Amino acid sequence: MKTIGYIIQKEFRQIFRNKAMLPLIFILPIIQLVILSNAATFEVKNIKFSYIDNDRTSTSRALIDKFNASEYFNVIKDFPSQAVASSAMLKGEVDVVLEIPQYFDRDLLKEKHSNLAVTINAIDGAAAGVENVYINQILQQFNKSLQVQFNQSPQVTDRPVNIITIPSFWYNETLNYKTFMVPGILVLLVTMITLFLSGMNIVREKEIGTLEQINVTPIKKSQFIIGKLFPFWVLGMALLTMGLVIAKLIFDVPMVGSMAVMYFYTSIYILVVLGIGLFISNFTETQQQAMFISWFFIVIFILMSGLFTPIASMPKWAQIITDFNPIKYFVEVMRMVMLKGSSLTDILPQLLKTLLYAILMNGLAVWSYKKTN
Amino acid sequence: MKRFIGFIKKEFYHIFRDKRSLFILFGMPIAQILLFGFAITNEINNVDIAILDHSKDATTKEIIHRISSSKYFSVQEFISTEKDIEFAFKKGKVKAVLNFEEGFSEKLIKDGNATIQIITDATDPNTANTISNFTNAILQKYQQEMNKGITVPYQIVPQTRMVYNPELKSVFMFVPGVMTIILMLVSAMMTSISITREKELGTMEILLVSPLKPFQVITGKVVPYIFLSVVNAVIIIIMSIYIFKMPVQGSLFLLGVESVLFIITSLALGILISTVSATQQTAMMISLMGLMLPVILLSGFIFPITSMPVPLQVISNIIPAKWFIIIIKAIMLKGVGLSFIWKETLILSSMTLFFMGLSIRKYKIRLE
């Protein structure tokens, strides 16, 4: 016990002695949490809207005013011809071009029907889909107002049926994106810091040559590993606490669930990450190699965690891969507990899988660590 | 010059000797682009939902059938009371519950309207909103079919054309992004680490007392990595064309030149990182912790920049990846030439010069 105490002391000293690292460990993640949580939103706003009005009547102007009034569209240009509009779209100056044909007004009055050409930049397919929905909504409203204006409510021989839908958004009525992202980004930062530090730690001693010195001391394998990992476990928990305080104070993220459940889960989760880091450390010769491997896994873990893009939309084989992603479980648990107030029994499946993962990874790490070369 | 070539040779030996790093350097980007190109999408499909049907009549059955046969939803369970909704949400089993009121068919025929409540788990606001929109679209279509024969006057019908990506494939959005992230991180990480490594191991001292000028030392370090990154970029471009069927509407040559420019920008950033850090650990933490999330989040790779708050839109301008993503998409999907992207190219070039200039000023030729 005393031996472990000394190793832990040594590790903490090394961490706090390195003045260049301290801000990277404590300040950088916090700044990123505060700034980047604002960036992650799939809302489609400020759509760069432009139009070509070949009709120039009060009806066509009224239609454009509708787009002007919408919170989603920024009307930025009025093009004289399709050619100019296309070139602006190539330059990326506009996203949507609405072309109002000549005789738009006349056709509408005479034939009670008129066409419009809409061109949407669809490189971001999902955003283009949403833009299309918004445009249709505005046109539908406009159609209705025209019917009222010309005093022509739908001629009913048979009364049309109408299905009314009432959307109700639970847990987040205002559809605030930040409450969704802050817990997720916090998870990433805790994971990245603990994985990078633990992954580089032992291999650094190897590379500098101090590991040999430790190996010839009577310190036991398990003592050494516990002594190495405990400080990072503390670091991870400290980061989580700082992040939660910020989530509450700056972002006002609701914390419906029990803190105890959250901390209990995190304490096990960090063990998984440390186990992975240690395992990487054992199998590499230089810090460079260790870093590349940690980088490889962390990018996969991040992008396949369901944090930014939905897992349910991935192909089946990819969904199976995500089952091996510890970040996925942590993100799920944080969101469930913080936002929905899920209890320990609700998160039991995730907890058990994480625990199993922790045992497996740490077992492998201890087994693969050799005191002799 | 001969000395310089000898130095570059040494660097290549270092790299090729370390088989494991070499394998990682080429294997990982390939694995990642394959994985992400196929797996990542911001479309919303197969959402698990539950049904709470209080009337269980022909109309509700038909609506449920239509909803479950769409690709957007998969009906996981039928629940019988309002209480079960909360339970299902807390377990995280379903994302939405459709609640049909009692006597649905009857009300629809007698009163002309009936109500469905769409209850969504809005902890994920985007999915919640999309579920609500998709359900409405399905219901509206059904309603139109029921109302056939009743014509509505004064209709403006839009004819929509989706340009550059008519099938709305999300691959077109993500492959350029993944390519950028891989090139950026690999290049910045490799150079920063390889330079600080010499510092940490003490061999930098030897290089400094050698007749090579500091400028030559740094260039010599970077040249092999330019070579490696270009090979990486070529592999990635070939894969995106043949495996992901990305079109190259514009000039392949221009794409190559721009890629080299971006690689040099990233390498310059790597050099800058190495001049401010004393150990490999610090260099890695800066290039990984400092670059990874900002590059993923602020480059427009996943989240549209125009929707961000204004201060963040301003910050996004200093992320080189943002400009490169604009360039790749413009060349590959829109097929434009240099006259359309000279501004972005100029920005990337000035960033490169800025990073290099700063590194030269910060580079210390003495040891502390």
What does this molecule look like?
The complex is a heterodimer of chains A (373) and B (368). In chain A, helix 3 links the parallel strand 1 (47-53) and strand 2 (73-78). The longest helix of chain A has 32 residues, at 177-208. Chain A has helices at residues 2-17, 21-36, 58-69, 82-90, 104-111, 125-149, 177-208, 210-215, 221-249, 259-283, 287-303, 316-322, 326-340, 348-368; strands at residues 47-53, 73-78, 96-100, 113-121, 162-170. Chain A has two domains: 2-40 and 176-368, no CATH class; 47-149, 3-Layer(aba) Sandwich (abc type-2 transporter like fold), CATH 3.40.1710.10. Chain A has 14 helices and five strands. With 368 residues, chain B is of the alpha/beta class. Chain B is built from 15 helices and five strands. Chain B has a four-stranded mixed β-sheet, sandwiched between helices. In chain B, helix 3 (58-69) links the parallel strand 1 and strand 2. In chain B, helix 2 packs parallel to helix 9, helix 7 (171-201) runs antiparallel to helix 11 and helix 9 (214-242) packs across helix 10 (252-276). The radius of gyration of chain B is 28 Å and the shape is elongated.
Provide key terms for this protein.
heterodimer, A: 373 residues, 14 helices, 64% helix, B: 368 residues, alpha/beta, abc type-2 transporter like fold, 2 domains, 4-stranded mixed beta sheet, elongated
